[in-house]
Amino acid sequence: MAEVERLLLIYGSNNSFNGYANSFLTFAKLAAGVSLGPPRFAVEGSGSNGIDAETRIYLGRRLAITNTFAAEDALLWVLALPDVYLRTPAVRCFDEFALLWALRFNQKYPKGFAVKVPTKTIDFRYRAASGAFEVEVPGEHEQYPDIAAVKTSTNVLVTLVQSCTEELEPFSRFVGRKPEARATMQAAILLPNDLLQDKSVGAFRSFGERIDAVIGTHGRASTTMREVIKMVGFDVPADGKVTSALGDQLGNILDRIDVAIEPDRRYGSGTPQLDDKVFLFKAAGGGPVDQDRPPYRSMKAQVEVSVLAAAADGEASSDELREVIAVIRAGVALTGVEQARLIAFAVTIFESPPKQARVLRRLTDRTVEEKQAIANAAIAAVGAGENVKQDEVRFLERLHKSLGLPSDGVYSGLHRTTKAPDEPVPITVEKRVSGIPIPKQTETAAIAAASVRIDAGRLAQVQKETQAVSDLLTQIFVEDAETATNSSPADLAVDSASAFWGLDEAHAELVEYLEIKVQITRQEFEERARYLKLLPDGAIEKINDWAFDRFDEPLLEDGEQVIMDARLRSRLAELREAAT
User: Fold this and answer.
1) CATH dotted code for 489-579
2) One digit per residue, pLDDT tens: the chain, 580 residues?
3) How many CB atoms lie within 10 A of CB 85?
4) Residue ranges per domain, the chain?
5) What region, left, alpha or beta, does residue 533 occupy, with left being phi > 0 and alpha being psi -120 to 50 degrees?
6) DSSP string across 232-270
7) Which of 36, 152, 157, 301 is the most buried (most CB within 10 A)?
8) What is the dihedral angle through the alpha carbons of 245, 251, 256, 257, rounded to the nearest 10 degrees?
9) CATH code for the part of the protein at 294-417
10) At 514, is the secondary structure helix, strand, or coil?
């Protein structure tokens, strides 16, 4: 045996010699009582007219113990058959094939594959390469049932091999074109769904961890399409355009880790572009919905039109967004996931409203009931604002005209929905008395009165409401807002907004608070941010962006502790002095 093994090292490349020499070694080892070792899967085919000796002995031992084969034993058997050959997808991706085989086999044969154990035991005979002699080979194998004598049909196993191979064809084609991308998300998405769930493919596992870090314990987050593409590991399109195919592919990937995205083209929205806001939230299977189901279809149209109405005056307030969300929640015919998708959709398009002409054009085929519901939703959104603007009224008139509804419905609807003016209420009968007459206005005073004045209070309110739209992201999937802490903004009595120009009042106040504290725990920071109606992560990003613009470096360091850069504290003092 040692001499034949030495010769194999020299002449093993000769197929004929290789076959004869290995056959000799196999039977010589059996005769000498030397173990052959475990069998190997015949990935490239058995290459012989019968099942190899290693497989016959291994499966013979199994049949001596049980009459059922598990997935691995069945695969070993079927691949050892002389007339079974794996196709390219299974050969190229054998690891994935073996995992898929185990899944499909266990689904089909949860108790194992039953085999009728033959009475015939294994009988090996060695025939010399020269054909000069033939001899029986003794050994322990003679006590085991012979798998080669089994009469149970293997047709169902061969069919299962073929179906598993077909399932792997898309993955195999991709790996064949780009072998270096085998471990990427682009390749992983082409694998069968349940294979991913069972194996937790590395690419999906790391992607899921990145998404979990973004959406946090609340299970939701707002970001941009660009960031989602980066998290998946795709290249950002060089031309800056996100195609519908790429959008669908990203949606399919998120489905695999039970995360939904809005807007989502697959459910009736447009494809978000690189810098468009998107909303992610946890939902089983990616939160699939039927975009043509009447209640969902009708409510989505109401949401789009309501957002257009709210944005008609150029100012989308948090009250108007709350009203849109309230209408969605009141839709009793909607499922939970439909409401979640519609709320997320409303939040994203509130910052980037769709084109009026495109939305209005799609409303012509609606039923009378749908058209009235759409008009009512738009009126409710406008009426939720502090004041109804002329541009909003004009939009409502245009909407009613597009829907074929009478325009007087605009005014009657607004009267029903607008808030009563916040003015003094008379509690006694007015009694006029004579007094000093009011002098007539001078020409200069009249001109001044007729000129436009900037209402600083109103301007601050608009800025606050704009910020509040983003703040709603932390509340839209819960019924009640979180309880505020006992801290009071009176603790910081400095007019920080004027000192830190470029930051709104809430962010400036947060900077002031950290300037005093220098270092606080992450929990305390989150509580303070929520009290100021800010998203904690968004607040850090905004403050650091502001600091980069002024100091070319970040102001805050985020971790278990939120720390203000000590070197920049003096710079903040300089800003405050300059403002005063």
Assistant:
1) 1.10.10
2) 999 999 999 999 998 899 899 889 999 999 988 888 888 888 876 556 778 889 999 999 999 999 999 999 999 999 999 888 889 999 999 989 999 999 999 999 999 999 999 999 999 999 998 889 999 999 888 999 999 999 999 999 999 999 999 999 999 998 898 888 787 777 888 888 777 665 455 566 777 777 888 887 778 888 889 988 888 878 888 888 999 888 888 888 888 888 999 999 898 888 888 888 888 988 888 899 998 898 888 888 888 787 777 777 666 667 777 878 888 888 888 998 999 999 888 888 777 776 666 667 667 667 777 777 777 777 777 666 556 666 777 777 777 777 777 776 777 677 666 554 444 544 444 455 555 554 454 444 343 333 334 344 544 544 454 444 444 444 444 433 333 333 333 333 334 444 677 788 888 888 887 887 778 888 888 888 887 888 888 889 889 888 887 887 889 988 888 998 888 877 887 776 665 5
3) 16
4) 35-167, 195-286, 294-417, 489-579
5) left
6) HTPPPPTTS---HHHHHHHHHHHHHTTEEEES-GGGTPP
7) 157
8) 140
9) 1.10.3680.10
10) helix
Name residues whose C-beta falls within 8 Å of residue 58's C-beta, 6 or more positions apart in sequence. 38, 39, 76
- The number of residues in the chain equals 580
